[in-house]
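User: I'm new to structure prediction. If I give you an amino acid sequence, what do you actually give back? Let's try with this one:
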Amino acid sequence: MGTIPLSPADRMTPDTRDSRAAFRIPDYRFYVSSRFLWTMGQQIMGVATAWFIYERTQDPLALGLIGLATFLPSIPLSLVTGAVADRYDRRRIIILSCIVMAVCAAAIFYMTRTTWVWPVYGAVMVLGAARSFSNPAGQALMMNLVPNEQYTSATSWNNSITQTANIIGPGVGGLLYPLGAGVPFAVAFCLYLGAVVFAARIVPRPNTGAKPPVTLAVLVAGYQYIWSKPVLLGSITLDLVAVLLGGATAMLPIFAQEIFLAGPWALGLLRATPSVGSILAALAFANYPVRRNVGKIMYACVFIYGLATIGFGLSTNIFVAMFFLAVIGAADMISVVIRQTLIQVETPNDMRGRVIAVHTILTGTSNQLGDFESGVLARFIGAVPTVVFGGCAALAATSLWVKLFPGLYHRDRFERPKSETAETVN
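Assistant: Good question. You get back a string of structure tokens that encode the predicted 3D arrangement of the chain. For your 426 residues, that looks like this:
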């Protein structure tokens, strides 16, 4: 079938009062189905890889190195992934990225049948590189699939579906691992291929607007644009610092095995619980979107994130720990939706891929570097003090950011002030 350059209006409904209107758009359904499957694959692999590494090494630093391996390719690629998303077919980028992810799953499946441990980090690095391309391309593509006035609702539903995968995936990974260390990776391989099938069904759309030449100025334009917009800079860096210092994900295998005295099923449960809170918050946001005081709400969510992190770190009962993890997920989700909507409002279409790429790299690497920081710190002071320290640091960062970015704190609505105009940075 040849390429049919349909405009978004060709496959969309004008009824913006219906919060589920985006699902009447076939391409949106294909997109969220593909994202659901590849997110499931990532979550299954995340649980299985962490347990596999810790089972063989019993070293917190080895867990932290998973985050470092994911982070390393992100920095050099951050200069090109956004430009690629702005210049080339975003659908094809997603397809190619999922194929690479499938290859990585197959590679680790093979490694589980050997005595190898360190080569797993190489596969994790390649997986991280593929995600660096898929995330900005996917987020930018979604904007081309729905009308502007449905973007907030579509983003919330997309996050809800993604978080559903984040709930199911870790549990599935934890249940599959006892069947054999390679089983979760085989399942992830199949899920990635399914994601390719759904992405291939999206009608190709050529990127609108002139394609800028690939120069250094174009490659760093996303960073320049964010730097010029205090609202974007504040929202992105607040998440970066809070998650970098307050992330507890890398420590979950230690909590599951040494504090709660359980197996991989408990790790899957702990990994899934934040997504339970996230999906509940995203569903509430989709049906009852925040319209006023968006800046204050975002700061409040990050503050709650820090408090809940401290509560989790001090928990000695797995159910109490799950409660705090659910609060962490809910607070983080509301913050994510507000931040993504602000990025959409503040960024013109021809810059969107590069800005989203920078946003994805900075927020994604904060998770990965946070895992590494936690692993290093836990080797010296233990897992519990590491998590508690991170929660306190997130609280301190939130208070500091109120003073550094008062414009973000006082932002009332998602609409841009009339005195401001969006300018493209080339």
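You can read the tokens as a compact description of the fold. Here is one thing that stands out. Residues 1-16, 419-426 have pLDDT under 50 and may be disordered.
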